[in-house]
Structures
1.
Amino acid sequence: TQLLEQSPQFLSIQEGENLTVYCNSSSVFSSLQWYRQEPGEGPVLLVTVVTGGEVKKLKRLTFQFGDARKDSSLHITAAQPGDTGLYLCAGEESGTYKYIFGTGTRLKVLA
Amino acid sequence: NAGVTQTPKFQVLKTGQSMTLQCAQDMNHEYMSWYRQDPGMGLRLIHYSVGAGITDQGEVPNGYNVSRSTTEDFPLRLLSAAPSQTSVYFCASSRAQGQGILDEQFFGPGTRLTVL
């Protein structure tokens, strides 16, 4: 079974600061998704990256898929309290429809 | 559209009891799946289905059964509940693009299960 490790596990920052969350594996994934989950709810998709080296931007969030498709990062610029939540990456085992989730990064942005 | 619905929201079982967690989606998605979420472990795939009549095992299938008789429904059965199955269970659905790639997975609100 492929494993996805996320770092850091916990992050508490002040409003306006920048941050980066990492998602790493020793295995290659066909695609990778990033989700955000709020307490008592299911995860909600933020982005899907498919091509090695791909960079996607959603407003203040920038997602990058590693060239070798083994790792990914999520960068948030000028974090806001509304960014608070659990961030999860999920990699797809090639051709299987099986998505392996990372352990998650719990972000708290203080006003 | 109700999206993905799960029932019940909360459940307490005694060791050895059986029960079925219900999941339904109204988006005509081919793909449905069940995950469990435990503190510090993210979500782990239990079982998944790429269409009616087709199911397959995920990372942690032991102690759970599934069936997919219709596109809309994907129930998860606990055969003989154990304390280790205490967790939050999420059902998800998605369109399948082909070649193993999914569109956005839509998750239900979860079922919090406690096994005493």
2.
Amino acid sequence: ETGVTQTPRHLVMGMTNKKSLKCEQHLGHNAMYWYKQSAKKPLELMFVYSLEERVENNSVPSRFSPECPNSSHLFLHLHTLQPEDSALYLCASSQDMDRVVDEQYFGPGTRLTVT
Amino acid sequence: AQSVAQPEDQVNVAEGNPLTVKCTYSVSGNPYLFWYVQYPNRGLQFLLKYITGDNLVKGSYGFEAEFNKSQTSFHLKKPSALVSDSALYFCAVRAFNNAGNMLTFGGGTRLMVKP
């Protein structure tokens, strides 16, 4: 295990639902990330948090809303999603955002299906 | 801007044979290169990284990678493949002058090791 957990592992939701994805890291890291992994596409960085402050938002639609209440927890709130948002959502953490040598540690992902 | 190319969508190898998964990169400044592996229904796991020094980097599960600055490549290798090595492999790069720990991932290469 990598020390990064994600819940739920699978989620099916309708386009009018509101749901949240949760990520928790037990590594004492200061930076956390949300990625989207779609079939046949490279990993897309969605959001970056460093010490609980958002530092990167890669033009993600507002129907995705992140929250980082502390350095160990990261949420992704979902509302009025589209079928093309179906994907594997991966959470990752690293020791510090600015350390170029640090690898990122990934959680197992949440497989999201929007119907 | 930085980019990573993994020219092969899939690599097929017989068990016991050597394997190579190719990766080329483009960055301005010194590159920091990473390999990750993703098993089915799992998140990405860190394999190895090149930061500086010896061009041959050794990592987990018997994998190694060779940094070649003149060819801007960082190919992943293993002398003797195992069926359990079958997975999706991602190369990633981070440039020295990039603000924050933002990795750019390649599109991934599926490795299939046949008994």
